[in-house]
Each structure stands twice: as structure tokens, then as C-alpha cells.
């Protein structure tokens, strides 16, 4: 009777509100003449199968509970301890005698015993290292897909997914959430009839990620679908959501001269290019050529506040960043996302010596900048700027920097937690002082100059930072084999 009582003391999945709740959809400002097609269109049937829930996953009466663990199925985490405590000793016995182990990316099934969940699906997420990012993405994708395949094989119609990534394993939460949500979306598109409910159980650091990203992959209305068009990442994987290398597919649209299908037949008609594209107007002056053209034609639009006008310009640049060919900028590898710091905040690295400021198209550089950072700045993040061995040819004009600063969305400033300058020079200190005093005073206290890479290790684990080889070599020359001194590095504490 005690075991039966434990089974009944649970939360019914059928009682939880599904994702398709129209009352919780924000009011979006979307162009009425939007005609683009989303890669994740609004689908009421799929939305009614999705639940976003914050609570104790061991209390859900799911037919399958997805349990992230280690290869030996005994990871020391609160979730693992809670599952074993509620399930009772029989679960441990089955794992030792029958399941035995589970490799990274695999999924193994066991009974739930005294848990409300009928079965537990154990899976092992990858350890994240920026040097092997592609492998980590593929492994995490396999965790979700193999869990879904196992559930379909055993006809488990309700599932509770705990986030398989973890800060302990160093996986950036937002990147992991993209993979999780889109993998489940693609699976439901093909096998949705097999499932009644899939619950995303959110706790702690994953809460904001899923709340923010679910509308991109499971829009709750056509308006939300249109709003999400410019926020969906360029790289959404293949038809199953499996990751592909984004550096090989920077451009997500076909060549403008491609043949179009017109009434079912191929046509050599070229796509028209909007005069407002970033390559055709003066970025430095931030002129909105399409609006100017409409004004000349007598077309009027509502008067916007300065903040609304700025947001509108930024959204236009963001759209252009997803249609412009930016592969030449990406090839310089001057800016890229690396791992996360000890607080789980994404790290953006900028390598000054790789940035040919005097010979690159600065308009396209700005577009690549927002293309890369826009998905990141919705949460707290940090920037590591390697000033190492850079010259005057690597330094853009201050006027351009001011224009970039004022052109980006306020999220960039709001969520920036730290800006580390590695190997500063007198010139960089002078420019930093001038810029943060007269242009960017709101981030002045966040900028820290460090004379060596090792001073970062107070807040960033070495495995989470992709340091260019020439930076490491130079650091060794000037700092030798010195280790991090907490007293010397106290300037970065508390960020």
C-alpha cells in the first residue's frame, strides 16, 4: 500500500496547460505585408502536445522520464539522487545487472518502479569543449533523438524531458536549448501521432532559455510565426534537426540569380534586391533608404519615437545579416563564440589581429557582428578581446565604433557582464578610456584590462576558451610559466 501511495502522489501530465495558450502570447509588432514562409510554421496540433513546466520531474506521471546522467548511470546530481530515492533500490539493481552503462549520445531504458513515471530513459550528454564544438552538438542531438526513438519503440506516449545539458559539463544553455527544441519539433513533425504530451521540465539556468526559444520553433499564432522569422538561427540542421557545421553554411539563401519556379516551371528571372540592403547604402550615416524612397512616393507611415525608430533600423540590419553573403568576413575568424564562464554565461571572443579594419567592408563586418551576437545577447554574456600583437591596420576608426555602439539593440549593453581586454597597450588603454568616458559610459565599470590570459581563469575554465595559438605563444613569452595569482587577479572577481 505504501508503494501504491507513492505512485498516486504525483502530478498528472494531462492536467498541465499546453503550450498553445493564446492568452500568454505577447503583443507583437509585425509588418502586415509579411509574405515570407517560416521554417517552423504555426501548427496547433503540435503545440497541443507541448508543455513547458517548472517543477519536480520525479513527480510527473509520464510514461517516460528522460534522465541525464553519466556513463556509469550514477552521476552525483540532485536529480539522479531524487530519481533513485523515489524509485527505490530495484532501479539501482536493474541498472547494475541489466543496463550496466550508457555511452555519450546513447539512450537506455529501465523501469520506473516506485516513480510515478512508468519508465526512465537514461542518456548521457556530452562534455562541451569549444575545440570540439561540432562533436558536442552532434552528441547532444543524438541524446534527444535516441530518447525519442526509444520512446516510440516502446510506445511511450507521454514524456518528461529534463534538460540534458548542464553547467557542470560546460554546455552553453541557450545553444543546448536550440538543439533540444528543434530536434523534438522535427521528430513530432514526422511521428507526432505517437505522442500525446511532451513536457519540457525547466529548472534554474534553463528556465529563461526555453521560455524565450519555444516561440521560435513552436509559434502559437501566425503573428508569432512572423515575429520569429528573423530570430530563428541560420543553421537549423537538416530535416531531422541534426546540426551541421555553421561555418560551412554562413549564407542561408540561394544565389540571387538562381532559377525560380514560376507556375511550376523554371525561370531565369533574378530576384530583386531592395535598395535598402546594407551593401547599397551608407552605413556610416545610418540612412534608411527604403523609408526615404517611400517618402518621395508620398507613402506615409506612423510617427515613431526615437527608440522605436532605432529598433526598426536594427531589425532591418538583422534581416539583412541573414540574407547577405558574409562568408568572407567569417573567414577571418576575428569574432566567434567560445564556451561559457563558471556562471554559465556565453563567451564571445574577438581577435584584433585577425580583423583587417583598413581593408575589410565595415558594413558587412557590422552585419556579421549582429548576425553572430543577436542570439547571444538575450542573456548575460561576456566578451574576451585579444588585443595581442595587433597594429593600426587592425583598429577601426573611432567614429565607426561609436556608430556601431549606437546602432545595436540595447540588449547588447544591458546583458554585457564583462569586457576583458587581454594584452592591452598604452594605445588601447587610451582609446578604451576615451570611448567609455565619452560614448559608452554605461559599460565603463565592466571593462577590465588583463596582462595575461591566465588572469581569466578565475572566472573562465581553460577548456571553455578557444585561445588563438599566437596569443598563447605571446603570453608565454611575456608571462612565462607563471600561474594565476588570486591577489593579482582580484580585479576580475565579482563579475
From TrEMBL:
<dbReference type="Pfam" id="PF13716">
    <property type="entry name" value="CRAL_TRIO_2"/>
</dbReference>
<dbReference type="InterPro" id="IPR043472">
    <property type="entry name" value="Macro_dom-like"/>
</dbReference>
<protein>
    <recommendedName>
        <fullName>Ganglioside-induced differentiation-associated protein 2</fullName>
    </recommendedName>
</protein>
<dbReference type="InterPro" id="IPR001251">
    <property type="entry name" value="CRAL-TRIO_dom"/>
</dbReference>
<dbReference type="Pfam" id="PF01661">
    <property type="entry name" value="Macro"/>
</dbReference>
<dbReference type="InterPro" id="IPR002589">
    <property type="entry name" value="Macro_dom"/>
</dbReference>
<feature type="domain" description="Macro">
    <location>
        <begin position="37"/>
        <end position="218"/>
    </location>
</feature>
<feature type="domain" description="CRAL-TRIO">
    <location>
        <begin position="325"/>
        <end position="479"/>
    </location>
</feature>
<comment type="similarity">
    <text>Belongs to the GDAP2 family.</text>
</comment>
<dbReference type="InterPro" id="IPR035793">
    <property type="entry name" value="Macro_GDAP2"/>
</dbReference>
<dbReference type="InterPro" id="IPR036865">
    <property type="entry name" value="CRAL-TRIO_dom_sf"/>
</dbReference>
